[in-house]
Design a protein that fits this description.
Helix content is 37%, strand content 7%. By secondary structure, it is mostly helical. Strands 1-2 form a two-stranded antiparallel sheet. The longest helix has 15 residues.
């Protein structure tokens, strides 16, 4: 069943081509977006390199480094100390 495009749905944050129009400033709305990105762009149990994370995030927004940082800080992605490997968090 397709998600309806209401002002409060995550799909309202994307244009008709699936590109993110802006990263929400409100924490609750940004959290909703980050959860959606983690669930749709990253698989559980898979290890991603930073370039792979960037590539996935660029499919929705050009500022992949900001999105990557938000995903890590919010706990949706974890990364190794050296930043070489990323994983989708089990709770995400």
């Amino acid at each position: 069943m397709p998600e309806h495009r209401t002002p409060h749905s995550v799909s309202a944050l994307f244009d008709g081509e699936g590109r993110l129009t802006a990263v929400p400033r409100r924490p609750a709305r940004r959290e909703q977006l980050l959860a959606h990105l983690a669930q749709t762009l990253f698989e559980h149990g898979r290890t991603y390199t930073e370039p792979e994370v960037n590539e996935a995030l660029r499919t929705v927004h050009p500022d992949c480094s900001a999105l990557r940082r938000h995903l890590v800080v919010s706990g949706h992605l974890t990364r190794t100390r050296d930043g070489a490997a990323y994983h989708r968090s089990p709770a995400a």
